# Entry
Amino acid sequence: MSTRPASAAPHLLLPALREVYQAYARAADQLPALPGALQAEVWLSAQLGTLEASAPHAEGRRAALGDLVTTLRTAGTPGARLFLRGLAAIGPAEVRRVAGKAADQIDAPLPDWAGDLGAVTSGLVWLIQEGPLDGDRLICEFRYPDGRSPHALAVRLGYGDTPSEIVVVGDVPALMNAARQAMQAELCVVQPYDPKAVGPRLRAALAAGGTFPEECYPALAVARHRAAALPGA
# Structure
């Protein structure tokens, strides 16, 4: 179990948010019952998106992340450990190491798919253009080890490469079939895109500190992780 006694209240940098962190810890009980790493990462990304959207500045976001790690470590539940493993895999770079160490301090079972968290390799990348005013929609394919759970990250970039839509797609064949049908109807153009060109473009567009539409935040952590997995300097 956690090295901290369960009855002890952890020291927090932002103690006024204690109940918020505890709500995250309770919600983490949902994680072990999810069917796989992709669903867990999407769930985790939504929680991180809420935290980032609410943070007044980068310093506040870092403090909140540190407090969340402390609260999850103190909770010491299987869900809390899995949340920490997810943070170590796809969370912001500044929290990954400490989240991993905190997860190792909890003696609780993990689902078989826990080792897949964050372990993806990139595949094909497609560019979909629907019109000069609609921007570019980038479809990036990914897989977990041994080809498990193929999925795609779909990001629509508008003027100045500002993200206007970020979606994680579990059914890649259905997505591409719909895109091909739209192309045949002359509603869009679909073409392969060099992953080495997409990687730097997406990483710049999704960089922390940017301004994003509210609906982009839930998938932002997964999107940043997947963008980092793409090739290109």
The longest helix spans residues 37-54.
